[in-house]
Amino acid sequence: MPNALIYILLFTVFSCTSCQQDTEKTALISPLEENASLSVVENKQKINNGLKRGDLLRVEVQNLRLREHQQLEAKVLRHLPEGSELYFMGEVSADSVTVKLRGKKYYAPFYRVKTALGYLGWVHAAAVKKQDPDLKGS
């Protein structure tokens, strides 16, 4: 009987800890954390996009797909209208892919983002642009 209580206590402690970690992952993060960089493999040049976790991004195309994973084949969670504001979550996909946007081909990774309504997902980096916080909503 005492062993059963110990197991129940340990299970409860570990369950609460993992819930707290999930909550911390989805919370909006300070823009002072975690730099990320955009690496263009095609031209073998590294472009420092200057993004930090929490930076504000603006959707530059109509009906941008917010995806569950960092792949073009991943499930689409939402369609985001042009001008939507997103928050960069500090994660960049390891692989880049080519997409065609407004008649031009772009080779870039995916960014993990959070929408203003709290949805988390991945968007192609070529479809968003860093927004100056002073210009928010313009």
UniProtKB/TrEMBL annotation:
It comes from the Bacteria. This is SH3b domain-containing protein. The lineage of its organism: Bacteria, Pseudomonadati, Bacteroidota, Saprospiria, Saprospirales.
